[in-house]
Write a structure and sequence with these properties.
Strand order of the largest sheet: 3-4-2-1-7-8-9-6-5
Distance between the termini: 55 Å
Shape: elongated
Order of helices and strands: HEEEEEEHEEEHH
Largest sheet: 9 strands, mixed
Structural class: alpha+beta
Helix content: 10-25%
Number of helices: 4
Radius of gyration: 25 Å
Number of strands: 9
Length: about 190
């Protein structure tokens, strides 16, 4: 897949000073938007809240063949309110997006350069919560969206199945009559 970077983004990557960051967006009922910095930033009109070094992301693997490589995201040092909402939220299948971006190094302001690059998009597979008296950590396994290619379709391609999807559609109404139909080729007769 062809990937493009903005000219300012590319110039910042080529400069001698570089301040890279990752931002994670999780599509919960109330979206969770975090980034690996220390001030609130805005990306595409959405505010991302600081997580500093409390957010860790496993390496994002890509391959030339069509394969669904997953990612593991861990959040540590969390407030008990975040833990309780994580316990009650139905997380499986929620969309997760991971962005890679750079910050402006010419000024002391926390300014995002261009549009961050979307490095990963997938669905939450499993979320584990580890909590004891010293730590509270949420570990999230995220599957690549290509995992949907491995999901079998439960379709029958019958007239009734088609009408369940599209009421009034007559595209498959003769499929049943073709089941045992004898077709003679070459001008012969039965």
């Amino acid at each position: 897949m062809a990937r493009t970077l903005g000219t300012d983004f590319q110039a910042q990557l080529d400069s001698s000073q570089l301040e890279p960051f990752f931002a994670v967006s999780v599509g919960f009922t109330i979206p969770l938007n975090l980034w690996t910095g220390y001030n609130t930033i805005t990306i595409g009109g959405t505010e991302y809240f600081p997580s500093g070094n409390l957010l860790s992301i496993s390496p994002i693997d890509e391959s030339a063949d069509i394969r669904a490589n997953g990612v593991k995201i861990a959040l540590s040092g969390l407030d008990s309110s975040i833990i309780s909402s994580a316990l009650t939220e139905d997380s499986q299948g929620k969309i997760v997006k991971i962005y890679f971006g750079v910050l402006e190094t010419a000024s002391n302001a926390t300014a995002v350069v261009d549009t961050p690059y979307q490095a990963f998009e997938g669905f939450i597979d499993r979320m584990a919560i580890v909590e004891d008296r010293n730590i509270a950590e949420i570990s999230v396994d995220v599957e690549n969206k290509l995992i949907m290619l491995e999901t079998p379709l439960n379709r029958r391609y019958t007239d009734q199945d088609q009408k369940n999807l599209f009421a009034g559609d007559r595209g498959l109404e003769f499929v049943e009559s073709l089941q045992d139909k004898s077709i003679v080729w070459g001008g012969g007769s039965n």
